Amino acid sequence: MIALARVDGRGAHAARLLAHATPAERELVLGVLRWQLTLDHLLARHLHQPLSVLDERIRAALRVGLYEARRMRTPAPVAVMEAVRVAKALAPRAAGLVNAVLRRTIEEPWPDPHDPDVPLPLRLSHPEWLVQRWVALLGGSEAAAALAADQEPAPLCLLAAVTVREQLAAAGCEVDSHPLVPGVLVVTNGAEVAVAALRAGKAYAIDPAAVAVARLLPEAAGLTADLTAAPGGKSLVLASERPGIRLFAADRSLRRTLLMRGTLALVERGRGVVVSDALAAPLRPGSCQAVLLDAPCSGTGTLRRHPEIRWRLQPADLAGLAVGQTRLAEAASALLAPGGVLLYATCSLEPEENAAVVAGLDLEVLPVAPALLFRALPSGGAVIPPGVAGDGFTVHLLRRRA
Ligand SMILES: C[S@@+](CC[C@H](N)C(=O)[O-])C[C@H]1O[C@@H](n2cnc3c(N)ncnc32)[C@H](O)[C@@H]1O
């Protein structure tokens, strides 16, 4: 509850706070954040004041109690007792309120996720503005599928060498091959063994859609630059699948670049990994045959893993993000040799951060080869909706005219 109160009241990032949490703690916190709008809607019916005026810790106790009772199958009296105990420790007078509100709210029917008469934002706990955008972008049924996917825990997926896969199996970790993204392993049992392998630097946790995105970058005979590369997932895909690649992988953050060194050590590729700002990369203009710019973004494709983004982000924020993305895209474009290709990608579905950014570049838009994962966009780019393979991404392939 403390973690939730910090995310809610102080703008903390849930994934960071949960770095050392148990799987059960993780799922509780992320689950409450995923279902926040629906939980609040039900709680509001039995509160005499808006939820927003309550102390953030009491708000967290109410949400957790209701979530545990309704979505985790914790017996209702146990969930209420635990929430009351926490509330009592924080503010003795609040315990009565938590007790009374939870007892009544727990009896409320949960909105039917398939009932078309219940508005989508309430059924699938996303802000209305985001739902409207995704319906416009993807159509009603694909948008509903993406929203539903955001409500599910993300499975642990790995890249690992064959020898490591054998070690994992021997230690009791069961994996399946991802059905749509070859080479990605989905952990189905024995996650603790997989986590130990990740901590020992033997495997890398990655989202399957991120792998599919990295593979879109055309193979190049000359230099390939990954300008915003940390923690190195897409560079790892490129380095491991393209043995002859000349790869420059950089990131502005020292901390994240050090993580990337560890990532690329999996394929013994420490060289060419540097701390560098993409706006002033130590590369000659026109020197790259292929450039990957996986730009920092709002992250609306990652709401399963980062559910709090949906409650923080406002539509007006997108224009500000696009300013930085445009500067990065222009810098990336200047590095392209004639005929060279830029893969501009974000884990955002929002057009301001994608189509609008690349529209300003003096580059030819190449169609993204139609495939099971990608839906074509009018801009010539493509989108992988959340839940199709994993996270959601938008991609554009752009070529400098020869
Ligand atoms: C979406 S993440 C990249 C993820 C990475 N491509 C992967 O697959 O693991 C965006 C990265 O951009 C970096 N970044 C932000 N602004 C930058 C800049 N001006 N120059 C270089 N890196 C930057 C951030 O530190 C962050 O690591």
Describe the structure.
With 402 residues, the chain is an alpha/beta fold. The chain folds into 4 domains: 2-105, Orthogonal Bundle (N-utilizing Substance Protein B Homolog, Chain A); 120-149; 157-205; 208-399, Vaccinia Virus protein VP39 (Rossmann fold). Helices cover 44% and strands 15% of the residues. The chain has 18 helices and 13 strands. Strands 5, 6, 7, 8, 9, 10, 11, 12 and 13 form a 9-stranded mixed beta sheet that branches. The protein has a 4-stranded antiparallel beta sheet with strand order 2-3-1-4. Helix 1 (2-10) packs across helix 5 (56-71), helix 5 packs antiparallel against helix 6 and helix 9 (128-138) crosses helix 10. The radius of gyration is 23 Å and the shape is globular. The termini are far apart. The model has no long low-confidence stretch (mean pLDDT 94).
Write the layout of secondary structure elements.
Layout: H1 2-10, H2 14-17, H3 23-34, H4 36-44, H5 56-71, H6 76-90, H7 94-105, H8 120-124, H9 128-138, H10 140-149, E1 157-160, H11 162-170, E2 174-177, E3 185-189, H12 191-199, E4 203-205, H13 208-214, E5 223-226, H14 233-241, E6 246-251, H15 254-265, E7 273-275, E8 288-294, H16 309-312, H17 317-334, E9 336-346, H18 355-359, E10 364-366, E11 375-376, E12 382-384, E13 393-399
Parallel strand pairs: 5-6, 5-8, 6-7, 8-9
Antiparallel strand pairs: 1-3, 1-4, 2-3, 9-13, 10-13, 11-12, 12-13
Helix pairs in contact: 1-5, 3-5, 4-5, 5-6, 5-7, 6-7, 9-10, 13-14
